[in-house]
């Protein structure tokens, strides 16, 4: 399988990664941003924001981009021409939403062309959420190891678990352009088997009293 990246695609991936890092930093560390803008303890706020940006890049950024790259890899496997394209308007809105204290992110999508069956289309769509589930496991290990490795490792692990669980669950909703709609169009039993635990896990995180 020959996986290649054009210069434009690499640029879009890089911009989306950085923009998502900024958006999630603005959301998670909104009080520090307000402190910085107020000119109170600016040095301390800058240090926290720098660490927060690195954490956001390693959790939200990685989760979103590997989700999209999973679509690309599976699409190419089925003979498609596939490339990621950033949505600059949505990335701008994501940053503005983060600054306003809201969480919103739609970095772009992998666009592919060529003939695919319903099954292949469903598998291409399913690849993204399944990748996020895998990342939940990876970040879960970091979270559990955090007690011995340090607070930053635990924070990266915990936020990585939350973000990737939410990404998997949200994208499996069978509506509009979301991955869940394409999976359901292919196979309702497959959708039930995969979407129910993914969406259930996201609901637990959102409404189970677990801090985001």
Automatic annotation (TrEMBL):
<feature type="transmembrane region" description="Helical">
    <location>
        <begin position="190"/>
        <end position="210"/>
    </location>
</feature>
<feature type="transmembrane region" description="Helical">
    <location>
        <begin position="12"/>
        <end position="29"/>
    </location>
</feature>
<dbReference type="InterPro" id="IPR052348">
    <property type="entry name" value="Metallopeptidase_M50B"/>
</dbReference>
<keyword id="KW-0812">Transmembrane</keyword>
<protein>
    <submittedName>
        <fullName>Metalloprotease</fullName>
    </submittedName>
</protein>
<feature type="transmembrane region" description="Helical">
    <location>
        <begin position="152"/>
        <end position="170"/>
    </location>
</feature>
<keyword id="KW-0472">Membrane</keyword>
<keyword id="KW-0378">Hydrolase</keyword>
<feature type="transmembrane region" description="Helical">
    <location>
        <begin position="49"/>
        <end position="70"/>
    </location>
</feature>
<keyword id="KW-0645">Protease</keyword>
<feature type="transmembrane region" description="Helical">
    <location>
        <begin position="123"/>
        <end position="145"/>
    </location>
</feature>
<keyword id="KW-0482">Metalloprotease</keyword>
<dbReference type="GO" id="GO:0008237">
    <property type="term" value="F:metallopeptidase activity"/>
</dbReference>
<keyword id="KW-1133">Transmembrane helix</keyword>
<dbReference type="GO" id="GO:0006508">
    <property type="term" value="P:proteolysis"/>
</dbReference>
<feature type="transmembrane region" description="Helical">
    <location>
        <begin position="91"/>
        <end position="111"/>
    </location>
</feature>
